[in-house]
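Pipeline run #58 for the internal structure catalog. This entry was flagged by the ingest filter as a single-chain record with no existing model, so it goes straight to prediction. Upstream metadata was stripped on purpose; only the residue string is passed forward. Reviewer on rotation: M.T. Logging verbosity set to normal.
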Amino acid sequence: MTTFEITGMTCGGCVKRVQAKLEAVVPGVQVQLKPPQATVPGPADVATLQAALAGSHYSVLAPAVVQPPPDMAPGWFATYRPLLLILAYILGASLLVQGARASGMETMRYFMAGFFLVFSFFKLLDVPAFADAYAGYDLLARRWRPWGSIYPFVELALGVAYLANVQPLLTNAVTLVVMGFSAIGVIGAVLDKRSIRCACLGTVFQLPMSTVTIIEDVGMVLMAAIALAM
């Protein structure tokens, strides 16, 4: 199944109208109000669905989350294996680059540098696709789409700043604001139980939005706050 978020629906009548428009191009689609989304039995092209709603005040938001049948769904570790491996590599590199002189604060700085550099890399592989995915849950990107295109470069700049240890006070303050605001959208999406894709690694991996994403964002906020307090 593939799930898309639908904007503009406020009542049961909206659901019926959207259902009728989408069924004309995708037979078997199921539309619901809470949460506002359309579920297609199989892969679907977001452009096709958007075209079906053209001329109305309803719209389809990427990303789509492809959900395998329950008996084929991967376990938690298999789902988040790419993310866990990346975080483990970044932590290992943060320790190795310091050698015997490793300290907690320096490890944290190198980890944050690696985090932003690696995660921005995946987003920069396809900036338009990331921007579409990010608009599915980020509060600012949803209202101002260019923010989704700018965000990967902000992460890249933060990664370089942490690595070079440039203006640490400003770097940590920006991280606190950017990641803190991003976390608000993530928490909202998880609490609403929306089946959307996490865009933390761009659109390369099919990672669902979950508490793992909250821990990821809030963890960066806490590390920035600790660095500011020291």
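catalog note: Residues 76-229 form one domain.
catalog note: The mean pLDDT is 84.
status: ready for reviewer M.T.
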